[in-house]
Design a protein that fits this description.
This protein is of the alpha/beta class. About 40% of the residues lie in helices and about 15% in strands. The structure holds D-mannose.
Amino acid sequence: MKLCFRWYGESDPVTLGEIRQIPGMKSIVTAVYATPVGEVWRREDILRAKALCLENGMTMEVIESVPVHEDIKLGLPTREKYADAYAENIRRLGEADVKCICYNFMPVFDWLRTDLHECCSDGSNALAYHAETLSRLDPRKVSLPGWDESYTPEELGGLLERYRGMTRERLFENLVWFLDRIMPACNEVGIDMAVHPDDPPWNVFGLPRTLSTEDDFDRLFRAVPNPHNGMTFCIGSLGAGRGNDLIHMAEKYAAAGRIPFAHLRNIRYTGDTDFSESGHLSSEGSLDMAGIVRALVAGGFDGYVRPDHGRNIWGEDGKPGYGLYDRALGATYLNGLFEMAEYAKEGKQ
Ligand code: DNO
């Protein structure tokens, strides 16, 4: 596996100099943040990000995310021009030696939590999701890091209105249309697309979601069999759905070559659909981290891995989910799990 770490660019309080000191760190996962969704990224911005990573002894081979314009998800006529711009981004990223692009196809909202600073018993704080709290939220007023800067409440209201009547089925068709349209660019430059699962893996605010279960991913890979059509195996997202058998899915999709990128983190179930994000270790949460890593390795996984959301620990007041310390602890733990799983697979005594 190739260990990497998400970095939010030059305004990220976590520096590349800090990230490079995490043992085994090979690569940076980042994006060009200044360009509005749907536009083509400037070559100089891509190359600057790459140069900064290289100066710090790391590569830049995974981009998270090149966001998909809502008009593509909605299937509007303007999707043509946005898909062409997307394909051009793929080509430009390929020229810069990027190997994988993580993106999502969730309408309007990306990942959704109801608490960004839930207090944990050990004094740390973490992200959490409570269905009951969500049911009381007005979707036009929720504020989350990552997407909230993109829309004013009025724009958000208008967008939600445009999704009225959207079904899971049509959303899926729009995803297939999009992939068919961009696969030629992926073939040209050898980039793998890694779609992120729905987080959480069910509909929110009445908006349909389309990639929540094993059946959903089977259907996606059947509809677009091109090997560049892959998934981000995000276990914190898929794992929130109790019906998802992560060990089975890990081995199956790794063996099928559908996992170019994995987000590995743990969650603790606190209700039927409620959960808190925990430390990465198996015993801290509800997911069998060792079993999942072993299954990935058994399936021949050799993709990119990053620790995912960390708690805020040791007094750090970082971007929720994306501080330095707990993600670094997660990285170190993942190094250990992979080393042992690969060692066992090679049959060393
Ligand atoms: C959350 C991330 C997601 C992910 C996007 C990909 O922490 O995993 O925001 O980057 O869904 O487009």
